[in-house]
Amino acid sequence: MHIVSLSGSPSQRSRSRWLLQLAQTRLEASASASSVIAVRDLPSAALLDADAHAEPIRRAIEHIQRADLLLVATPIYKAAYSGLLKLFLDLLPPDVLRGKVVLPLATGGSLAHFLVLDYALKPVLAALGARDILDGVYATDAQLVPHESGGYVPDASLVERLNRALQPLLPLEAEARCSA
What pLDDT is stored for residue 175 in this prediction? Predict the structure, then answer.
């Protein structure tokens, strides 16, 4: 399985990026290849000018085209996914996500915004051709407590929801649990 992780956070140190890395780490044994696209590292001028032909943008799109699984992570700001992620998604070709499995991940200050995954992000992913969109995982700031190492400590309920969302992607592990 070729996994591409897409980080829509404008911050270097980000809860959503950390959650994305946690999900990708849990899938490493199933991955034949994996890559991370941090939209914040793409050229801002190309994003703002909607220049899909700029070399870094074109390479990022090619990674997504080769993916079997796309993990999409974003912080939630003012009841919407990040504008940075929106700029990039607008550059993707129609139906680029057809035939791919997509897992949306999001972080926000409170539970008040958890429906953004269902009412804002999933429709855009579907418009890009995604038909196999897994149950998204939303984490509040309180569920990802900063750690002195620079990372975060997830609470048990978040880990449980992430594991449940990833379960369909781990057929061998699921089969082993059923036969035990």
Answer: 41
Work out the number of other CB atoms within 10 angstroms of the CB of residue 70. 24
Q: Where are the alpha helices (DSSP H) in 5-121?
A: 15-27, 44-48, 55-66, 83-89, 116
Prediction pTM value = 0.92
SS3 assignment, position 94:
coil
pLDDT score of 174: 42
DSSP letter assigned to residue 78: T
Q: Which amino acid is at 73?
A: A
Confidence tier at 112 by pLDDT (50, 70, 90): confident
Residue with tokens 């400590």: 153
Q: Where are the alpha helices (DSSP H) in 49-95?
A: 55-66, 83-89
- Check: CB of residue 102 under 8 Å from CB of residue 125: yes
Task: Give the pLDDT band (50/70/90) at residue 170.
Answer: confident
SS3 state of residue 119: helix
Neighbour tally for 157: CB within 10 Å = 10
CB-based burial of residue 36 (10 Å sphere; 0-12 exposed, 13-18 middle, 19+ buried)?
Answer: middle
Closest CA to 164 of 125, 132, 138: 138
Q: Is there a contact between 9 and 41 (Cβ–Cβ < 8 Å)?
A: no
